[in-house]
Design brief:
This protein is mostly beta strands and 137 residues long. The protein has a single domain, classed as Calycin beta-barrel core domain (Lipocalin, Beta Barrel). It is 13% helix and 47% strand. The protein has 1 helix and 8 strands. It has one helix at residues 2-19; strands at residues 38-44, 49-57, 64-68, 81-85, 88-96, 102-111, 114-122, 127-136. It has an 8-stranded antiparallel β-barrel. Strand 1 and strand 2 (49-57) form a beta hairpin. The longest helix is centred in the first third of the chain and has 18 residues, at 2-19. The radius of gyration is 24 Å and the shape is globular. The termini are far apart.
């Protein structure tokens, strides 16, 4: 009977300690945006050819990134933001360029070090439907 009591006590305390593990230890603390950050080579179908962009964290929103030089707009223009969820990235409809006259929207999927994109750009005169491949440098 003593062996049974000892065995029961060991099992009970083992389960008690397992049940007391903090939930924060079980959560993956990785920020989804981290895999998207950095400089990327771009190959685009909308007559822009090959160029580079840089993706940085949006300091004002924990699920957003900023895509600098998107659509080859240059470093001094208003860059679009995108929302990251897992391996998906979405550019909600928004104005780019400082003149606020060019609308962009689209989405992409990350697979290892490549993002495959589909997006539209409307500059007020023309509507461009683009695909692009971003390859991380």
């Amino acid at each position: 009977m003593s062996k049974l009591t000892t065995l029961f006590s060991v099992v009970f305390f083992t389960l008690l300690f397992i049940a007391c593990t903090e939930d924060s230890d079980l959560v993956n603390p990785q920020d989804d945006r981290d895999l998207f950050l950095g400089t990327w080579n771009v190959n685009e179908t909308c007559n822009r050819g090959a160029y580079q962009i840089t993706i940085t964290k949006d300091p004002t929103n924990s699920s957003q990134v900023i895509i600098n030089n998107f659509w080859l707009i240059g470093p001094n223009e208003k860059a679009p933001y995108a929302i990251v969820a897992g391996s998906n990235i979405v550019i909600p409809q928004q104005n780019i360029y400082n003149n606020e006259k060019t609308l962009v929207k689209g989405s992409g999927t990350l697979d290892k070090d490549i993002i495959e994109w589909e997006y539209t750009v409307n500059d007020g005169a023309d509507l461009y439907t683009c695909t692009a491949t971003y390859e991380k440098i």
